[in-house]
Amino acid sequence: MMNAIERVLAEISFRETDERPIFLQIGGLAAKLMGFPLHRYLTDAQTAAEAQYHTAHLLKNDVLFGFLDFCVEAEAMGASIAYSDSEYPSIVNPLITDWKEILSLEPPNLRRDGRMPVVLEVCERLVEKDQGEHFIIGQCLGPTTLATQIFGIENSIYLLVDNPEAFNLLLNFTTQIAKSFAQAILATGVSAVLINDPSASPNVFPKSTFNNMIFPHLKQLVNEIKTQEKDLVWLQITGKTTSILPTIHDLPVDLITLDSPVELIEAQEILNNKAVIGNINPLLFTNNNNENLLIQTQSTLAKRRKSGFILGTGCDIPFDARPERIHDFLNIVGRV
Predict the structure, then answer these.
(1) How many Å from the N-terminal Cα to the C-terminal Cα in the chain?
(2) Are 98 and 151 in contact (CB under 8 A)?
(3) Phi–psi pair at 116, nearest 5 degrees
(4) How far does CA 119 lie from the centroid of its chain?
(5) Which one, 18, 90, 300, 331, has least CB within 10 Å?
(6) What's the CA gap between 314 and 228, in Å, rounded?
(7) What percentage of the chain has pLDDT greater than the value 70?
(8) For 21, which DSSP code?
(9) 105 φ, ψ to 5°?
């Protein structure tokens, strides 16, 4: 019988498995399920690692997540963060308001600044505790999302229109930060690094921007962090990404998330050379009943291809998800 990491590696290689792996993207929700305050989970490596490890066993999840939230990198660079025990933290104000300020910004120190060291410690603890049973993920933000975190999403959109060269300069800077963080994450011994780049979605920037400006930075990033064959990269861009999948097809990544708005059959045909994860809508886990969850899960199971597919959510399951919906899902897929 295969363990979790063996199943995942088999799917990535388009080989047969004893059963399909499941990737429930559970971040801060693990704190709630284990009875820990969210703020403690997001700031204490031991708490986060314990919550991830025990939640994975409780829910028979094949993946452990060594990441905290989307504010880690910006906070490490000096952005003010508002914390709450009922939702993920948010950036109070953009770190910079004039793109020229990027010229004076220094990259964060991965082992000293903000909670970047916490992320690395969570990854190290999970690797040590898990002993090769689960597929362990560490997360860094993609270049476009980090740009919108430190400059603001509205400012970034206007910058693209008014000064494309400055927008490209901003992406140059954030790509280097992502590269350093991703390399440090892989050095902890995790199974893969997740480049999470929701702001690269066509829901935010046009397809032409992705193809001409965003993709070159993603390609550079992936090429520079995949220095060994064992280094695995998972790319996650949320939203309706169908229009950019032909471009993503050429990225040397190993796993790609398909969010719930994406038509699964079409996407699998386009990404015929990549293992995909999807595409259960995580908001379905917050509903009062399980009818829609049942319908979508059965539909996804019917559309999945024979290999190179991992059943999972299109992004993080919300902090206010209902535990009974997660157990409903596990019942539907026969994991109880």
Answers:
(1) 17
(2) no
(3) -60, -40
(4) 14
(5) 18
(6) 28
(7) 100
(8) -
(9) -75, 145
Query: Tell me: the pLDDT tens digits for 55-93?
Result: 999 999 999 999 999 999 999 999 999 998 889 999 999
Regarding beta strands 135-141 and 309-313, do their DSSP bridges make them parallel or antiparallel, or are they unpaired?
unpaired
The region, left, alpha or beta by phi > 0 then psi within -120 to 50, assigned to residue 46 is alpha
195 phi, psi to nearest 5 deg: -90, 105
- Which stretches of the chain are assigned E, i.e. beta strand? 22-23, 63-66, 81-82, 90-91, 135-141, 192-196, 232-236, 255-258, 275-280, 309-313
Q: Look at domain 4-332 and name its CATH class.
A: alpha beta
Helix ranges, 202-322 (H):
207-209, 215-225, 245-248, 264-270, 291-303
β-pair type (90-91, 135-141): unpaired
Q: Give the pair of three-digit tokens for residue 216.
A: 């070159």
| 81, two tokens | 């963060």
Structure tokens at 40: 């403690």
What is the token pair recorded at 255?
């796993």
pLDDT in tens, 309-333: 999 999 999 999 999 999 999 999 9
Instruction: Give Dmax over CA atoms of the chain in angstroms.
Output: 57
Q: Provide φ and ψ at 136, rounded to 5°.
A: -105, 130
Give the domain ranges of the chain: 4-332
Distance between CA atoms of residues 109 and 111, nearest Å: 6
Alpha carbon distances (Å) from 148 to 21, 93, 177: 33, 11, 14
Q: Which of 108, 107, 12 is nearest to 63 (CA)?
A: 12
Tell me if the pTM is above 0.85. Answer: yes
